Amino acid sequence: MLISIDGIDGCGKSTQVGLLAEHLGAQQIREISDSRWGRKLKSTPSPTLEEQLAWFLADRALLAPMLERASNSRKHHIVSDRSYLSTVAYQSFDSGLAPGMLERMNRALVPHYDLMFVLDLPVDLAMMRVRKRGEALTWCETEGRLTWARRVFEAWAAQHDNIVLVDATGTPETVFSLLRHQVDRSLRLP
């Protein structure tokens, strides 16, 4: 089973990826990976839209064979911290690029995700969590970009059967319970 956990910055993705991967005995990956392209993206303070798209697509192409093995599998599971859905949400902000076009570009490289969770959190709460880390904000951690991304995530969840919007305002345990229920039901686990 190929699963992603997406959502705006500060929604608790990393925590939930770890919990769900442990629950399933799954491989845990991160988009942006530690590939040459992922490192470039992480180390560039303000990448242009062209750089973002090129590096995300190159990084995703390297992950594709591994993702393919997990897609539709009942034995091999991957839980990804983000997916192409985040590119659709973040790179469509103020770029003139339609979310649907960005999806098609990325879907040409990666297989179907069995489940895509979007941890939904109000932007003000997300910004509070991000600031609490005590780190400098990144280029994508602005109120405007997070508001846009949240709207795109909500719209995509309403349009796709494999995308599940999950309320991320609760405790990590509460959020994990919601995720676990959905995954176990998909795998038909007791």
N- to C-terminal distance: 17 Å
Order of helices and strands: EHEHHEHHEHHEH
The CATH class turns out to be: Alpha Beta
> By helix and strand content, what is the structural category?
alpha/beta
Say what the CATH topology is.
Answer: Rossmann fold
Instruction: Give the tally of structural domains.
Output: 1
Structural shape? globular
Q: What is the CATH superfamily label?
A: P-loop containing nucleotide triphosphate hydrolases
Task: Supply the CATH architecture.
Answer: 3-Layer(aba) Sandwich
- Compute the number of helices: 8
Low-confidence stretches: none
Radius of gyration: 16 Å
Strand order of the largest sheet: 2-3-1-4-5
Q: Approximately how much beta-strand content do the residues carry?
A: 5-15%
Characterize the biggest β-sheet. Answer: 5 strands, parallel
Q: How helix-rich are the residues, as a percent range?
A: 40-55%
Written account of the structure:
Strands 2-3-1-4-5 form a 5-stranded parallel sheet, with helices on both faces. Helix 1 crosses helix 8, helix 2 (36-43) crosses helix 3 (49-70) and helix 4 (84-91) packs antiparallel against helix 5 (99-107). The chain is built from 8 helices and 5 strands; from the N terminus they run E-H-E-H-H-E-H-H-E-H-H-E-H. It has a single domain (2-187), classed as 3-Layer(aba) Sandwich (Rossmann fold). It is 54% helix and 13% strand. It has helices at 13-24, 36-43, 49-70, 84-91, 99-107, 123-132, 143-159, 172-187, and strands at 2-7, 27-30, 78-81, 115-120, 163-167.
